[in-house]
Design goal:
membrane, single chain, 2 domains, DUF318, globular, 24 helices, transmembrane, mainly alpha
Length: about 600
């Protein structure tokens, strides 16, 4: 089941991201994002808020998704009808059939645990009949169903599909004796085999996804869910804004250009991280105990300096925040570290240098440094409390740290450094890098994005950043694409400062340590201070970006670096499996298994 689960997870997620969403965004525009978020969020909120009716909420999402897939199957049947008039009719038919097979398999595994095999077979038969009906009624169907309304409905359906796939209901009957898929340390004896099986299933899913999508990416198959005749084709072209004008291969080209641009900088970041770990095997963020009594300004500067270079996101920063307090660090030092570490990182700094240029990289470093210091000073004075447990915590942590010290031999330190830079760090950053590149490649397909008001942009940012812990590394290519599309530098600054640090994971940590009211005030204070910085900023970087002026520049060493990154990320996927890989994108405290798992 682990291999099959990973296979379905990769194939369906990939088909949704690369096959369905680009057409939905192109036709439905920015409102498609709202319907997508609604379809994904409502069943999830119902299940987490009303545990007593969680099964009913999930069952409703399953039935709605099955209904929507049947509706989508009708358009697939219409696409098959046009294969006879296509120059590449065999590839068109093969592409449609290939992407329907894993969908049918997923429907079976989604419905059978809840409703039994009979109803699952009935739904599959109904979808097959809908596909045949779409084939027979192709011309009038496409004429009546085309438009933003259809795109919004499909976005809603895609959200429910993503919900039930992430929820993994087909795993329920097989999970009583297995360990939770979000915690791979509960069963040491079963973990390696399960993870490797999931890794193999994930790689097979990647190969299958490439077989399905490559004809579309190469332009040998036209997407058939949008417009199909000359009249409709002309209509769509008149409503699409310049930002969304793209061929079938433009998303792939944009993804390749971004990947080539960031690959050498990623390799350099991993090398520097390994070198830092070799030179400083003990976490240099852990201060001496006497720093707790030092001046708050000095503490804030030291905490920001310690946190900014580390390539970590909020969950790891939160754990280190507890470690710092237990080690006897001052409140201001720990807060500066907690705020600074998710904002930057050596990897994010190098990616900014490669995509946006040295001016943007240095400006980003300076802005995040000032933001961390000022917020740490303000919050530190407000949250001042006696370090009553610092001594005992420090002694306990010191002994634990000493016991974890590697051997002084250079070979042992080198092995640990390599594991840190090319295994641990890649496991935590690869999902965010891939997500950032994919979203950056797909984003220009969203019509009307460049006309979104600033307040609406901030609202979208809040809706995304609160449930997730956005990584500064993965956010960098996305920010580059937005700036090239005309995003205002003021909005870019707010995204840089608030995206990585304003989320539920950090709010839960602050609530547990300092109370809910203080946690809310701290989060609101960071938002207000970020807005104030946009008004008081004395200098803005140039709007001319290196990647924008020469996006197709490539050299052999860029391709070699990209090949090395692909190998490293593939090993990480094989080692962990797709679900643990993607779990890095989700909040640590917010992704809890359902009771029936």
């Amino acid at each position: 089941m682990g291999a099959l689960d990973a296979f379905i997870f990769v194939v369906i997620g990939g088909v949704v991201l690369f096959h369905m969403l680009p057409d939905i965004f192109q036709v439905g525009g920015i409102w498609s994002l709202a319907f997508l978020a609604f379809g994904l969020a409502v069943p999830t909120l119902l299940e987490h808020t009303f545990h007593a009716i969680a099964r009913h909420a999930h069952a409703g999402a399953l039935l709605f998704a099955a209904l929507g897939l049947g509706f989508h199957g009708m358009t697939d049947g219409a696409a098959l009808a046009e294969a006879s008039s296509s120059e590449h009719q065999s590839l068109l038919a093969a592409g449609v059939i290939l992407h329907r097979l894993p969908v049918g398999l997923t429907i079976w595994w989604l419905l059978r645990p809840h409703f039994g095999a009979t109803l699952a077979l009935i739904v599959l038969a109904g979808i097959s009949i809908a596909t045949v009906a779409g084939h027979q009624l192709a011309e009038p169907l496409l004429h009546d169903l085309h438009g933003p309304g259809l795109a919004w409905f499909e976005a809603l359906v895609v959200g429910t599909i993503l919900h039930v796939v992430f929820h993994r209901p087909y795993h329920e009957d097989h999970n009583h004796d297995a360990h939770d898929h979000h915690n791979h340390s509960n069963s040491p004896t079963n973990e390696p085999s399960t993870d490797w099986l999931q890794g193999v299933g994930s790689l097979v899913g990647v190969v299958t996804l490439l077989a399905i999508m490559m004809p579309y990416w190469l332009g040998t198959i036209e997407h058939q869910h949008g417009h199909h005749n000359e009249h409709e084709h002309h209509h769509v072209e008149t409503v699409i804004q310049p930002l969304a004008e793209h061929s079938n291969t433009e998303v792939l080209h944009r993804l390749l250009d971004l990947s080539l641009a960031v690959a050498p900088w990623l390799l350099l970041a991993y090398l520097l991280a390994a070198a830092i770990n070799f030179v400083l095997p003990r976490p240099f963020a852990v201060p001496h105990k006497q720093e707790a009594n030092e001046h708050p300004i000095k503490q804030s500067i030291q905490g920001a300096i310690a946190g900014l270079p580390l390539p970590i996101c909020v969950p790891n920063a939160s754990r280190l925040y507890n470690l710092l307090l237990q080690s006897g660090a001052g409140q201001t030092y720990a807060l500066a570290f907690l705020i600074a570490s998710p904002l930057m990182g050596i990897d994010a700094l190098l990616l900014t240098w490669g995509l946006l240029g040295s001016e943007w990289a240095l400006w980003r470093l300076a802005v995040t440094f000032v933001f961390s210091i000022m917020m740490a000073l303000a919050i530190g004075y407000w949250l001042r409390q006696p370090q009553h447990s610092a001594t005992s915590g420090h002694n306990h942590q010191q002994s634990q740290t000493d016991s974890e010290q590697p051997s002084g031999h250079w070979r042992s330190r080198l092995q640990q450094a390599v594991r840190h830079g090319y295994a641990h760090l890649i496991d935590h950053t690869a999902p965010w890098v891939i997500t950032g590149l994919i979203v950056a490649a797909l984003l220009p397909s969203v019509t009307g994005l460049n006309e979104l008001p600033v307040l609406m942009t901030l609202l979208v940012l809040a809706l995304l950043s609160l449930p997730l812990h956005i990584c500064a590394t993965g956010m960098t290519p996305l920010l580059a694409v937005l700036l090239m599309a005309g995003l205002a530098p003021e909005v870019a600054l707010i995204i840089l400062l608030l995206g990585p640090v304003t989320n539920l994971t950090q709010m839960k940590l602050l609530s547990r340590l300092h109370g809910k009211n203080r946690a809310r005030v701290v989060t609101l204070g960071m938002a207000v201070f970020a807005l104030a910085m946009t008004l008081l900023m004395p200098y803005w970087p140039s709007s001319t970006l290196p990647f924008d002026s020469n996006p197709h520049a490539d050299h052999w060493w860029q391709y070699a670096s990209l090949a090395a990154i692909i190998v490293l990320y593939t090993l990480s996927l094989l080692r962990r499996g797709a679900r643990a890989f993607v779990a890095e994108l989700l909040p640590t405290n917010g992704v809890q298994p359902h009771k029936h798992h």
